[in-house]
Amino acid sequence: MRDEPSAPSSVNSPHGTHHTPLQERESSINLLTPKPICEEESDTKLRSVNLPPLQTFHTASPVQLAPPTIFEQEYEDSVASPEGVSPNAIKNKAESHRERGEFAKAASEYLRLVDIFVQEKGQGSVTVFETFAELADIYQAQGKLPESIEAYRRVVSGYEEIFGASSLETLRTIHNLGKVLEEDESYEEAETCYRQAIAGFEELGASGFLDRLDCQGFLGDLLSDTGRDEEALQLFIPLLASYNELGLHHRKISILGSLLEVYNGLENSQKLHATIQDLHKLLDERIDIDYRRFPEVLWEGIHLGSIYGQLLENELADSLLSRVIPKLELLDDVKYKIEKLYGYMEYGNIKLRLNCLEQAERCLSLAKVTLENCNRHDDPVVAFVDSRVLALEFRSTKPIERNTMELSKQKLLEFMRRMGDQGNFQDRDEERGAGGEVATNTDNSSCKYGVSFSTTDITGISLSEFYTG
């Protein structure tokens, strides 16, 4: 609901960046081969969140205020004089920047709006807090999580005063605060937010029913990602039944994707296999129907494609991803760039395994461009894409040029040392002498110079560990 290649026996979630790598958790599972995908297309007594009181903004008052927080400092540095400026014009400008992925500019405009609304309507106005909520979302998109958390806290505090602590508006904001806290790896507080919101939604009855189900899904993923799979299972089973009864197929698909990780963590291969079958059948039925309204079904398509790839079911992965990626490319580049990144990475790696080098090069090139647009230059996802591109260079080398590959071998060794992981390759020159024997591996890739490497995991990195959908 909510990054590939790894050893054949591991099944990792494209959602989980926080839990123990599942290569270590799935070593004993013997999986049956799932049936091919149809080629035919068809249409708690709970703790309260400890929220700080609403702070006073910087004014001309002679009262001495405490040093500004991170959020207040940015506010003071960014606001401009609102005189003669239409709030609607500023909001339209902010939304335009947001749609183009210019989040810093969008944040600046929202800060100007806050300044205007505070002066025009007062600090406790609903409009002020609604603008704070937009700003918090922008900060989260920027990766400025502390600022996003602080802004959401202000919104919760304001909504409690205006609507009440048990109002739908307040509870939804607490849920959103929990999401950012989880992304910031503040798991305990995120869990507290989720549980408080769930309890509140339950008290609201029918008006909070769907919100409660949604929040329970997020709580279940958090529990699974932190190794509490039994607790997560107790949430997901009734959720699956509820969404099935309501006919919310896209939600059911997301829950099935989460259950894959739970059963994997519990080492229940029978349930895992059955869930794989159920998910791939439902995707086959619904992906063409639902992907425009509910693009999250595409994320689970990438997720299942990743699992097939890790099981070395490359043809199944290719069959599924060949349907997912063209639809993914139709979505907005800015809003869904992270999802596109991981789709390109998964599909590029599968095409590399199948020796479809031209298609692999296209997907990996798109992944690199997306990484650059995300301003990601030094993280494991970048290292993974670089490793796939390097593997592609080895595969693409013409036989007549193989006598020049000693330099490529040295380049590979230096790359692996820089990554701090040499566990996936061996230099066998000393063992085999100067005979130029070809080294092989599980992917049938080879190198004349005896550097044994796996095109499924040249860096030891599992793509699924870094997916976030």
Keywords:
disordered N terminus; globular; 18 helices; 1% strand; two-stranded antiparallel ribbon; mainly alpha; disordered C terminus
Written description of the protein model:
The chain is mostly helical and 469 residues long. 61% of the residues lie in helices and 1% in strands. The longest helix is centred in the middle third of the chain and has 22 residues, at 269-290.
Write the layout of secondary structure elements.
Elements: H1 70-78, H2 87-99, H3 103-121, H4 126-142, H5 145-162, H6 168-183, H7 187-204, H8 209-225, H9 229-246, H10 249-265, H11 269-290, H12 296-310, H13 314-329, H14 337-353, H15 357-373, H16 380-396, H17 406-419, E1 426-427, H18 429-432, E2 451-452
Antiparallel strand pairs: 1-2
Helix pairs in contact: 2-3, 3-4, 4-5, 5-6, 6-7, 6-8, 7-8, 8-9, 8-10, 9-10, 10-11, 10-12, 11-12, 12-13, 12-14, 13-14, 14-15, 14-16, 15-16
Q: What is the β-strand count?
A: 2
Q: Figure out the total of helices.
A: 18
Strand order of the largest sheet: 1-2
Bin the helical content: 55-70%
N- to C-terminal separation?
A: 7 Å
Low-confidence stretches: 3-68, 399-407, 421-469
**Largest sheet composition:** 2 strands, antiparallel
